[in-house]
Each structure stands twice: as C-alpha cells, then as structure tokens.
Amino acid sequence: MTISMRSCRFFSVLLLRSTGIGLMLIMLSGCESLGLGSLGGGHFTDLFSKDTDEVEIDEAEIAALAAAPNIERLWQVKLTESKTAVFYPVYENGGLYVADEDGSLIRLDASSGEEVWQIDTGKRLSGGVGIGEGLILLGTYKGEVLAFDESGSLLWQAQVSSEILSPPHVTSGIVVVRTGDGRLFGLNADDGSRIWVYQGATPPLTVRSYAGVSLFAGAVFAGFPGGKLIAVNLQDGNVGWEATVALPRGVTELERMTDISSLPAIDQNSVCAVAYRGRVACFELASGSQIWSKEASSNAGLVMDNQRVYVSEERGVLAAYDRSSGVTDWKQSKLGGRKITLPLIVRGARLVIGDDEGYVMILNRNDGALLARAPTDGSPILSVPEFLPDGFVVHTQKGGVFAFFLP
Q1: Domain Pyrrolo-quinoline quinone repeat spans what residues (predicted)?
Q2: Mapping DSSP to helix (H, G, I), strand (E, B) and coil, where does residue 112 land?
Q3: CA of 221: how far to CAs of 176, 338, 386, in Å?
Q4: Beta strands 206-208 and 44-46, pairing class
Q5: Using CA atoms, how far apart are residues 143 and 145, in angstroms rounded to an integer?
Q6: Closest of 245, 240, 242 to residue 258, by C-alpha
Q7: Edge-first strand listing for the sheet containing 228-233
Q8: CA–CA separation, 296 vs 274, rounded Å?
Q9: Residues with Cβ within 8 Å of residue 252, at least 6 apart in sequence
C-alpha cells in the first residue's frame, strides 16, 4: 500500500489494522520516522502532519504579518525537546507546572519563570500536566498514571491499558484518563485504584489524538473516531448519551476518517465539538440533542464564549460561528496558512493562538483582526496557550516555555 503526500512534517505515521495479520506499520512518503513508544494496539495517522494540499500565500499577507506589533516577552525556560508527545503547561496557585518527555516535572514561579522545584520521575512521559484537588498528574508511554502532591512527592502510581497522550483530569475524587487504545479510565484519586473503564469503538484507521476529556457537571465528555461525541457518568462510567458530530464519507479508510481529535467545549446548557474532515456541531448538554451543525474540519479544536464558537480550522483558518445558530460571524484566513492551536480566550475581547512555526498571535475576538504577534524558538506550538495572571505561556516542540505579557 502506498500513500503519497505533497508535503509532510513532524512525526506522521499510519498504523493500519489488517484483519488476521495484526498491525501493519506504514510510513507516509517523505516523513521522518520517530519512535512511538508503547502503542497498545493503536492504529493512527498523525494529526500534526501538514495538509496534503499546498497553501499559496501572497507577499502582502506575509508583509502584514511581519508588520504586526510585537508582544512583550516576560521570561523563557528551556526543557528537553519533545519527539512525539505534546505537553500542556498548567497554572495553579502562583505556580506553573511543566514536564518533558525525558521525565522531568518542574514547578516554576509563574511571575518570574524561576524554578521552585524539579523532580526526575524516572519515566518517559507522554501526557501531562493535569492538576486539581491537590494532585499533579502525568501519563507515560507505558500506560502509567503518576500522581504527585504540590511539593513534588509521589503519592501513587496506577497502570492502565496503553500509552497516555493527554493530561489526566480530576474532579470529585475521580481521576479520568484517556488511553491511546480508545479507553477511558476512572481512577480513585486517593490511591489510583480502578473504579470503571469505558471502551470506545475504533475504526480501522484513526487520527492520533492528543485530546483528552472534558469534565463538567458530573459527566465526562469525549470525542471519538467516526465522529462520535459521548457523555458518560463520572461516578460509574455508564453512557448518558451519544451524539454524531459527523458521518464518515468516502470509499477508502483514509477518506472515511472523521475523528473528533480535540476537546469539546462546554457550558451550562450546551456542548460543542468539531470533527476532522467533518462538521462542527453543538448539542444540548442534558440530552445530546443537536442544536446546529455546519461543515468544518479541525484537529485542533474549538472554544466558546457567550456569543461565538471559535474553531481552529485547517490551513490556518480561525473561524467564529454564532453560538446559538451556527451562522458564520467571521473567518480569519490570513495567518500565513499555518496550522494553529486551539485559541485561548483572554480579557479585552481577545484570542491568543500559536502556530507550527513558533509564533504566538493575539486576535480581536469580534472580527478576527490580528492585533499583535511574536516569535518563540521557531518550532511548532502544539498545545493551547495557558493563562497567566499577567499574560499567557506556551510550550514549544523544542522544549521552550515562553511567557508573554498581556496588557
């Protein structure tokens, strides 16, 4: 089987399941091969590969980007470069918690970037950091869940079925972990013992997703391959409802990939999700009944405020849809044609995004206009920017942690 792409970056890998012969590893043409750790039966295409069609950018667009006002940098810290994992910095109680693939867990002073403490977990980390209820949570390529207290002392370690590609989350005494083989685990926050497990359906070919789960109102919300969005009970893992964001289309398995590879956005009344090569849709929180849907494609995800749903779509387009009707409010398509992160909503009607060339950008939330822009270290920013009291922080693929001021 041969798959060709006109351009390809990062660790683009396909694992295709073939009946009766187990797993077949297929590398995309022209891509660099990188280790994936313990895959635990996964079968993925990497969500960070470049779009298959080239994007033409005119000189005026490049000039406008270069002329954007700069964003003041507060501080920066260098960690180990990430080969295959995506790490999310997390702010909590004046501290910024960061981790890297080599096993370091570090607490930084959020205002200065100075190290408060650092520990070597002795593990190859693949997911983290999650934080809450006095726990700092990490995941490994071998399916280990590590729980530390705020001083960095190990409280417990638990084993799940396969690699953990996203931060574990905790609420109401239950730690929820998503694994690479399509399972959700509910663990006791006191000792890591298993309370429940949910097994999602997995089609033959799926997007390798670094999204985890969203916890809200006693439920766990997660998107799955095949365009499915589910809500399960936090206490026992039983399914409350299942909704379809998008239906697979096409003849080949590659054409039929319609995965929800990002986190859903939730508020008191609704939950919204977007599928890769599919649709964006919003549903009633309690019942899962569809409110509206619209053609869209994203593997980065969406966020929402009181007025709009903001979707980081393919080819570097940021789109804003009316929250109640789904009508397109605006689209910003002049960001250099790059892959962009999930937006961070910040004060002053602004959005912050990162891109795959290491730039951070501030946009006007009302019309998508570019307000300011700044470089980091030139490597991709793959996770959503994180809030800081005076601004925001990003973690790059090269291991750079950059904090910026937000006036």
Answers
A1: 102-332
A2: coil
A3: 11, 29, 21
A4: parallel
A5: 7
A6: 245
A7: 214-216, 219-224, 228-233, 239-244
A8: 7
A9: none
Q: How far apart are CA 72 and CA 70, in angstroms?
A: 6
The answer to whether the beta carbons of residues 320 and 274 sit under 8 Å apart is no
Q: pLDDT tens per residue, the chain (407 residues)? A: 333 333 333 323 333 333 232 332 333 333 332 333 333 333 444 444 444 455 566 788 888 899 999 999 999 999 999 989 999 999 999 999 999 999 999 999 999 999 999 999 999 999 889 999 999 999 999 999 999 999 999 999 999 999 999 999 999 999 999 998 889 999 999 999 999 999 977 766 666 778 899 999 999 999 998 889 999 999 999 999 999 998 877 666 666 667 888 999 999 999 999 998 889 999 999 999 999 999 998 989 999 999 999 999 988 999 999 999 999 999 999 998 889 999 999 999 999 999 999 999 999 999 999 999 999 999 999 899 999 999 999 999 999 999 999 98
- Within 13 Å and on the Cβ side, how many CA atoms surround 166? 25
CA-to-CA distance for 51 and 59, rounded, in angstroms?
21
Measured distance CA(301)–CA(262) in Å, rounded: 5
Residues constituting the chain: 407
Q: Which amino acid appears at position 372 of this protein?
A: A
- The distance from CA 355 to its chain's CA centroid, rounded to whole angstroms, is 13
Which residue reads 């501080």 in tokens?
Answer: 75
State the first-to-last Cα distance of the chain, in angstroms, to the nearest integer.
53
Q: Residue 225 has what DSSP assignment?
A: G
Tokens 């398509």 belong to 333
The Cβ-side half-sphere exposure at 248, using a 13 Å CA radius, reads 18
**Tokens at residue 34, please?**
């990188």
Q: Report the C-alpha gap between 307 and 325 in whole angstroms.
A: 10
**Residue 207 main-chain phi, psi, to 5 deg:** -75, 135
CA 126 to chain centre: 13
Is 263 in contact with 88 (CB distance < 8 Å)? no
pTM (2 d.p.): 0.85
One-letter identity of residue 50: K
